[in-house]
Specification:
The complex is a heterodimer. Chain A is an all-alpha fold. Chain A contains 2 helices and no strands. Chain A has one domain. Chain B is mainly alpha-helical. Chain B contains 10 helices and 6 strands, in the order ααβαααβααββββααα. In chain B, strands 1-3-4 form a 3-stranded antiparallel beta sheet, with no helix packed on it. In chain B, strands 2-6-5 form a 3-stranded antiparallel beta sheet, with no helix packed on it. The chains are: A mainly alpha, B mainly alpha. At the A-B interface, α1 of A face α3, α4, α5 and α8 of B.
Chain lengths: ~170, ~325
Amino acid sequence: MDALGIEWSLLLAQIVNFLLLIVLLRMFLYKPVLNMLNARKERIAQSMKDAERVSAAAREAEQEKAKVLEQARREAQEIRAQATRDAEKIAQDVRGRAEQEATEIRMKAQADAAKQVELALADANKQIADLAIMATEKLLGRELANKAEQQRFVAEFLAESGSKGK
Amino acid sequence: MGKKIVDFLWGTKQRKIWTSVIVGLFAASILINFIAPVPPPHVALSGEPIFSTGPKWFTNSVLTTIIVDIILLLLALATRFSLKEVPGGLQNFMEAIIEALYGLAESVAGKNAGKFFPWVVTIFLFVIISNWSGLIPGVGSIGFYHPYPAEEKHGEDSHAYLSDNQLAMAGGSIILAAPESVQAAPAAAVSEKGKFIPLFRAPSADLNMTFALAISTMVMVQIWGVRHLGGSYFRKFFNFSGPNGFMKGINGFVGILELISEFSRVLAFGFRLFGNIFAGEIILFTMTFLIAFLLPVPFYVLEVFVGFVQALVFMMLALVFFQMSTISHGSHDEHH
């Protein structure tokens, strides 16, 4: 032992030194560094998971958007079709009413015209009768005795011819 | 690109420069041997007290051990107090080392890695820094000349002083200066100035340090064995079970072998590290003594490598022994 330079005191000192080194390095080096490594590993894993989740959410949102757009387009088309149909219906209504009104106006105008003609004819008949009576009086030189009777007679006659002439 | 580099390093002009540098260095080596001869190295097997009058325990290897401790602790503290989530230079370096070693420990010890880790990584760091500390220029070559004690200087029993195991270099050959051969060994290690004592000495070139690690490791092996297996751990050593008397005898004998192997591991641990590092130092001394320049360079590279490998070997073996002690005897394969 002595020849090899082994001395118990030195050996013991080296053992103590080694144990002390273990304790100190464990406290100052291994634990903090390993903790840091673990913390970083966890953080990276966490952030990768987060990124995954975010991208999944983005994908979902994209799909949602597409779906919403599609629905909106379909709805718009429906609304347009409905509007077209409504407009056609309204146009038809308007046209129908206009035609009806036109017909009414025409019929009224016709009726008016007929009335006018009738009135004119009646007026003319009356004047003709008067003229006829006047002419007859002039021709006879006297007044017909029964003027009213005469007038009725001419009117009858005219009506008859009028209705015949029609 | 490659041709450019070759031209830059080994062009016609550079070739001449290199050649003349090499030849010049060799010539200088030889000249130096005439002008100022390199003193033949004296190699002591053990650490020596630095101060001839100072305490006997304060050897050069103790001093270097303290310096290695300080280096390790400074590294640890510098890392500890600059620890950031986003690592910088030193932190990157230390994290890489610790992560690699932890991976290694995990691959061997599995779930026990956390428990064994501080031990084996401290072994690795302490041993590798100790090994490399011996390679720093000045370690082993800076020192004091101790005057011989007056009564031993001329006395016939000068071997009493030299008996402390020295390897002496005499005429280019190493002689173990055993007490009997002191007269035969010319005063190679004994210059007229006194006995040369280096100021520093690699701790791993001191058996006290290597055996301290070896003993601590093997004691921890027993402690972990008991902690994991309880009293049944010792059945490995004292096993007299068996179906018949013959098997009982065999098992008992195997137990004795196991017991011996535990002690032999201490010796193997201690001498393996010491032998490698001490031999490396002798090689470097010898090469420097023979040709001062250039020749030692490849050996320096080799010693850097050996220092790393020995640290790794010590660590791996410790790890394997730790792990083996936790496995119960039934599924336990003998490891050699």
